[in-house]
Design brief:
By secondary structure, this protein is an alpha+beta fold. Helices cover 53% and strands 7% of the residues.
Amino acid sequence: MKLFSGPLSMFGAKAQIAALEKGIAFDLVMVPFDSGDHYQPRHPEVLRINPKQQVPVLVDGDLELFDSTQIFEYLEDLQPQPALWPAGATARARARLLEHLSDEVFFPHVIKLFGLQDAMQSPPAVAACAACARHYEAMEARLAHADHLAGGYSFADIAFYMAHVFADRKGAGMTAATPRLVAWRDRVGQRPAVRAVVGPMMKFLASQGRPVPLFLQSHLGT
């Protein structure tokens, strides 16, 4: 199995963490990133397999997949244990919706901040940060009676953790207004599979002289 990702690929990190959590062996191929968090130059296999020309891309024998969620579903079918979706159709549907919200509702607000790092007081940046804060509040409510977003630890947690890493990098981090969510972040961040993926990402940032979120600076000493 071969997984194409990038040193600053949020979606690649999702797939990589899931494979590590499941103990699935794979070869990791890192494609270059430029200083704007884009893929340059494009890897020929990524170009061939993914019409969107993005990582992650997974190759397993004659199977070629792209999109982090599709890759995860394959990994879950391939190696059902440990399960990263909850049991039961209703619980799984709710967890899948949370993962979708992280990727398609929360993260687009983060993307808006990528080009606004020198204008964080501008109306678009303020609006994007406010939207992220509202999402944090919604996730805080979900943790009132559970340690993880969908009951047990799941891909919903992996997806939102990685989306938040990028939100914090771009100026829309969590605050004391969501203490349960901050505690959740710390729990998820201590998982060996998560540390194994996030650590190199933070060291890559530091090697370029780029800021590392305060809550992730412990990775720089390991």
